[in-house]
Amino acid sequence: MCGIVGYVGKRDAVPVLVEGLHRLEYRGYDSAGLAVVHRGRLAVTKTAGRVQDLRDKLKTNTKATLGIGHTRWATHGEPNEVNAHPHTDTAGRIAVVHNGIIENAEQLRAQLQGSGVRLVSDTDTEALAHMIAAELAAAEAGDGPAAPGDLEDAVIRTLRRVEGAYGLVVLDIKNPDQLVVARNGSPIVLGLGENEMFVASDVSALVRYTRQVIYLEDGEVAKIRATDYRTTTLAGQDASAKIPMTVDADDDDYELGPYQDYMRKEIHEQPDALRRALRGRLDDRFATARLGGINLDARELRSIRCVKFLGCGSAYYAGQMGATVIEELARIPADAEPASEFRYRSPVVDPDTLYVAVSQSGETIDTLMAVQELKRKGGQVMGAVNVVGSAIGRECGRGIFLHAGPEVAVASTKALTNMAVSFALLGLLLGRVRDLSAASGHRVVTGLRALPEQVNRILAAEEDIATIAGRFAHAEHMFFIGRVRGWPVAREGAQKLKEISYVHAEAYQAGELKHGPLALIAADMPSVVIVPSDDLVAKNISTIEQIKARGGPVIAVTSTDIPEGLADAVIRVPRAEPELEPILLNVPLQILAYHAAAKLGRDIDKPRNLAKSVTVE
Ligand code: F6R
After folding, report:
1. Record: fold of 3-254
2. 461: Cα within 13 Å, side-chain hemisphere
3. Could you tell me the residue ranges of all domains in the chain?
4. Which of 81, 87, 196, 313 would you call most buried, defined as having the most Cβ atoms within 10 angstroms of its Cβ?
5. CB neighbourhood size of 272 (10 A)
6. How many angstroms does the Cα of residue 31 sit away from the middle of ligand 1?
7. How do residues 91-133 score in pLDDT, each as one tens digit?
8. Is 125's C-beta closer than 6 angstroms to any atom of ligand 1?
9. Domain 256-460 is in which class?
10. Is domain 462-605 given the CATH code 3.40.50.10490 in the classification?
11. What's the order of all strands across the beta sheet hosting 380-385?
12. Separation of CA 364 and ligand 1 centre (Å)
């Protein structure tokens, strides 16, 4: 969603900010803007278009060493230039960029209007700029409690009157050596350079310059200057004792290289991503998995009676894959639930259940809230997150890092694959402290080790899959059908197709077809049927026959042999250990969705209406 960048140092701030905004484009946005201090005055440039439009609009002679920038995803007010950030006070002294939603914005705006302030935008953020300016003005007139000229103090006083979520950066032309930043529910990371400092909502905007970062916690405020920073809490306590982290990514990870878009690049990165997820985690001696980050000894692992995955969108479907593999390997009940529903249904939290919060970004607000609900009710929760240092990872305090590397495309591919493989590792570990035999454990370890190469073989068939995608891309609707292991795969396949190609896609359990959806089967309704090599092959073949008998075209995605000529198109994947097959069967569906979207000329990395990281409800 919205993105934030900030810079204070010796460089020319404008290109640093624009570059940072480019890096944040993947999160999804509808307008962009930046503000710098140029010759003692505030220079603000905004556009209702793309970052490239902003770059074109900027005056080349606007030199500055301090500035802030923003990509906006509209919440309060339509996406236009006036509502784009940064927002300023009436005198043009203060500029603010803000992610999140101020819940008492209406009340704050009314108070400001009541005191004669003319608001120019429809946003919640503009109120903050006026409030901070008023605090400073009062202090400078000697009739306010804030210290004269102390921006940090004015920001803290303002935020104490604010309810809601924010990550924000404030610039004051009368304090041209500093920025003040604050966080409550929306990520803010400081990048520490040599005699320069960066701020961003996401490390991708600053890894080009530094890998040393500090994540702000909720309720913290920081004053940052080129050479130092100071962190306090809104309550006024010192919070400076922070150890910088080294980000496990560099600028090259965000480069497209030979690819036209990130989704295809990330699909092709999966063999390497899988190797990273498995590295050091396979224990041949005891035929099990090593997952140090979950911090549970054998006795604690044994006392888990149930596993529940919580995630949103594809992360939820990955959780479903996880639930299936855990039930199979560990023989304990497991299921998955959309995290977005969890806290609203007053969940019964069972102390013997292991809850797993699944999130690529680690910032999805619904998943974070589910974790907080669980912790409040005494649930045992661990994270399965990709972004180290992210809110969910920190809130859980233990878990499995996915090690997929930075994922830029909105459509999740390699992170989802690494989620699924991480849950297979968890299943193996849970199984081996229970009844999974050493022989079966060895079989799974060997199967896991083979996955990267097997994915490579699927990627080698990309051209054939692209041809199939081209044949069916113009369908208005598609079904994705799966059974047991194939069911979460079908759901994720439908999700991927609809989100990037805008083709309406629905997933159904094969056994449910006859209970309603079969009525829709016709020549213009292709079905993708997932056929793993398990003891349900005959049943799945019969499903294909039923669809064919009603004139529906079928694309079979399978690791087994199906009768010649039965399906209209067949996509084959290598045969894996049965419990691991969903991981492989999912990959051609990514490729299918990608090429269908490409054929339809979609903006693949930035599908309409979607954002990479959903940090507001
Ligand atoms: C789909 C997709 C989304 C995300 C969902 C959760 O391709 O990417 O459905 O899976 O928004 O995001 P994370 O995993 O960051 O919590």
Report:
1. Glutamine Phosphoribosylpyrophosphate, subunit 1, domain 1 (3.60.20)
2. 19
3. 3-254, 256-460, 462-605
4. 87
5. 16
6. 22
7. 999 999 999 888 899 999 999 999 999 999 999 999 999 999 9
8. no
9. alpha beta
10. yes
11. 334-338, 306-311, 353-359, 380-385, 399-401
12. 8
